[in-house]
Amino acid sequence: MAESYRAYNPPRGAQWNYGGSNWKLSRSKLDLFVECPLCFYLDNKLGVARPRGPSFTLNIAVDALLKKEFDAHRAEGTRHPLMAQYGVDAVPYDHEDMEAWRENFVGIQYRHPGTGLLITGAVDDVWVNPRGELIVVDYKATSKDGKVEKLSDSGWDEQYKRQMEIYQWLLRQKGFAVSKTGYFVYVNGRKDKKAFDGKLEFDVTLIPHTAGDDSWVEELIIDAKHCLDQETVPRPSSDCDFCRYRKVARDVQSKDMPKKTVARVSKKKKDTHDDTTTNSLF
User: Fold this and answer.
1) What is the pLDDT of residues 52-103, one digit of tens each?
2) Statement to judge: residues 212 and 264 lie in one domain
3) Contact between 224 and 244 (Cβ < 8 Å)
4) What is the structure's pLDDT at 201?
5) Residue 102, class by beta-carbon neighbours within 10 Å (0-12 exposed, 13-18 middle, 19+ buried)?
6) Within a domain: 165
7) Looking at the domain assignment, is residue 91 inside a domain?
8) Looking at the structure, do residues 78 and 115 belong to the same domain, yes or no?
């Protein structure tokens, strides 16, 4: 079982883990720490990430097309019709580092002086208003019933808000004036059509996030570093589905596997030093 998992998702080389030359504390890693300190520790300290889900290829296509659309207005210095429709006085921001800011594994980068950690985050877009304030913009694609015109208090939407506020924090640390209001370009696939007919139709709405408070980010970075500096694994989050699955799987395996098989697996782990730290995770 362990061999199968490792073949699918092998542990990273040490240079990609905490303390390694290639390791960065990205926005997504910070959010993983919020979700579950144990999963965060396993991923970044021990190099064992959560199993990967499928790629959201339709979302990626929507993201790429939106960027092309807004880039056309960026090149001309003009306002996109969606901005005009919602009364947003801004244009797409034209900056020499925009492509780097958008690129995964690069993004906006800032060396946090208190911890020495390199914090990164890849934005979807940045606009600028007449006062010179930058506006963080994030693209979201989904398919829900009805028109999506505001964010809810769901876990996903709270994650979206944290995501935007980390981007705002990064830009402020780089010395930019940043508006407290950011926007989600929300693309919602319609399911109320009579037939598919070889095409999807979407409603596109612009949803403001007006309470862009990044005061919590500093403390989160410090707490994340403290977690990684520990020699003992942290406790799992009470609502982490991945940790619950690992515990149930371990309990069922211990209960139902023949004793000889358990002994043989235990001996093999001891002989190969195969992930012995997981024996004390729960």
Assistant:
1) 877 778 889 999 999 999 999 999 999 999 999 999 999 999 999 999 999 9
2) no
3) no
4) 86
5) middle
6) yes
7) yes
8) yes
pLDDT band at 51 (very low <50, low <70, confident <90, very high): confident
Note whether 79 and 215 are same-domain residues: yes
Residues in the chain, overall count = 282
Total of domains in the chain? 2
Q: What is the pTM of this model?
A: 0.83
Q: pLDDT averaged over the chain?
A: 86
* 248 vs 282: CA distance, rounded Å: 10
Confidence band for 276, pLDDT divided at 50, 70 and 90:
very low
Q: How many CA atoms lie within 13 A of 233 on its CB side?
A: 22
Q: 258: domain range?
A: 240-282
CB count in 10 Å sphere of residue 225: 17
| Parallel/antiparallel/unpaired status of strands 202-209 and 182-189 | antiparallel
- Answer yes or no: do 64 and 127 share one domain: yes
Edge-to-edge strand order for the sheet containing 25-26?
Answer: 25-26, 118-121, 108-111
Do 166 and 30 meet the contact criterion of CB atoms below 8 Å apart? yes
Please state the φ and ψ torsions of residue 177, each to the nearest 5 degrees.
-80, 125
